[in-house]
Amino acid sequence: MKIAVAGLGYVGLSLAVLLARDNEVAALDIDAAKVDMINKGVSPLRDKELEEYLAAGQLNLSATTDKEKAYAGAVYVIIATPTDYDPQRNYFDTGSVEAVIRDVLAVNPAAVMVIKSTVPVGYTRSIREKTGVDNIIFSPEFLREGRALYDNLYPSRIVVGEKSARARRFARLLKDAALKPDVPVLLTDSAEAEAIKLFANAYLAMRVAFFNELDTYAELQGLNTGDIIAGVCLDARIGQGYNNPSFGYGGYCLPKDTRQLRANFAGVPHRLIGAIVDANETRMDHIAAMILKRNPGVVGIYRLVMKAGSDNFRAAAIAGVMRRLQARGTPMVIYEPLLQAAQYDGIPVVHDLAEFKRVADVIVANRLAAELADVKEKVYTRDVFGRD
To answer: Per-residue pLDDT for 309 more than 70?
Structure first.
């Protein structure tokens, strides 16, 4: 069976590699350099399993920038293009999804289009009505950045937003490609599947926000955050996940998904969803205030990535802290090995770690690293457990 995948970020590339183990997969992206890397067996993304599977060269996978070549003859077209949140419209920007749908209808209108991009609740129903076609379904992804292929190989669940034979067939494709036995499969209507994605991420964001507020309280009251969290999380109903304090939740999904869900609550009584978004902003306010309390001459920002092992700077919580420090006129320098530029957002980038340690009065690190051990008296972090 031929399957096409449009958009080769973490979601699209991990699905392309997953399905190319047993199917013919055509992977489409507008970035020619990314396409070239994939065809050479090199992952353009930092993801251990993706790197290993691509390098092994045992996949029936070809990447291309040619839409007709990708879509022609495909039974399923998986849409995994970006849907960033537009704060002016209080809505995801679904333009890239709609562009793919138009292209598929022009090249291969019989293909079943499966939206994996995160969309607002009710979007799939509305785009069917707008286009006048019914071969569009939604299936949420539940992937961690940097472990995207692993999470497809060992999925927590497979959800498809349609109760039909074609939906069951698509779910079977994903289940058969997984290495985990007995993966739960849930078929729902499209709006319910869209809601599952947004509410799942909102709950994860809520956990992050909760333990961050616990940490804020402990820090200001002189209490031991680690002991409190350890005692709270020994309750099996609470558990150990997502409980390490940070500068806030960030990355590709949680910030935009919580904002979209809040927008979907327009006209519906609510307090909690909006409070999650507000709590994240409050946490970054607090972190900036605690840094400034040290009266630093120069603040050193250690790493811009959203978490260890990532190469994503987008919407990382440290960026929110930096904006707050910039607004106060605080001099800063950045150490980020993945950056080659001399500046980032107008802030000097220091490429030599020893020099960075020397010039910074306070080193701000969302996550601790062994290479900061010699300057631990300079480091400000809320990392309690040494993990994400």
So the answer is: no
3-state secondary structure 109-154: CCCEEEECCCCCCCHHHHHHHHHCCCCEEECCCCCCCCCHHHHHHC
DSSP-derived pairing of the beta strands 185-187 and 158-160? parallel
- 41 and 135, same domain (yes or no): yes
Give the Cα separation of 117 and 374 in Å (integer). 43
pLDDT digits (tens, 9 = 90+) for 188-213: 999 999 999 999 999 999 999 999 99
Could you give the residue ranges of the DSSP H alpha helices within the chain?
10-19, 32-39, 48-56, 67-71, 95-107, 123-131, 148-153, 165-177, 190-221, 225-233, 254-264, 272-292, 317-327, 353-359
Share of the chain above pLDDT 90, in %: 86
CA–CA distance, 74 with 76 (Å, rounded to integer): 5
- Mapped onto helix, strand or coil, the DSSP state of residue 383 is coil
Give residue 266's pLDDT band: very low, low, confident or very high (50, 70, 90): confident
Please tell me the pTM assigned to this model.
0.91
Catalytic residue among 8, 75, 193, 253: 253
Same domain, 161 and 238: no
306 lies in a domain?
yes
- Answer yes or no: 233 catalytic: no
> Nearest Cα to 368, choosing from 241, 263, 270, 226?
226
Asked if the model's pLDDT at residue 311 lies above 90, the reply is no
Q: How far is CA 293 from the centre of its chain?
A: 32
The boundaries of the domain holding residue 245 are 223-380
Q: Are residues 38 and 166 in the same domain?
A: yes
Does residue 175 share a domain with residue 235?
Answer: no
Contact (Cβ atoms closer than 8 angstroms) between residue 349 and residue 342 = yes
Say yes or no: 146 and 228 in one domain. Answer: no
Looking up residue 300, the CATH number of its domain turns out to be 3.40.50.720
Q: What is the pLDDT of residues 268-295, one digit of tens each?
A: 898 999 999 999 999 999 999 999 999 9
Within 10 Å of residue 128's Cβ, how many Cβ atoms?
Answer: 16
For the CA atoms of 198, 204, 205, 210, the dihedral, rounded to the nearest 10 degrees, stands at 140
Structure tokens at 378: 């300079």
Give the chain's domain count: 2
What's the CA gap between 116 and 302, in Å, rounded?
A: 33
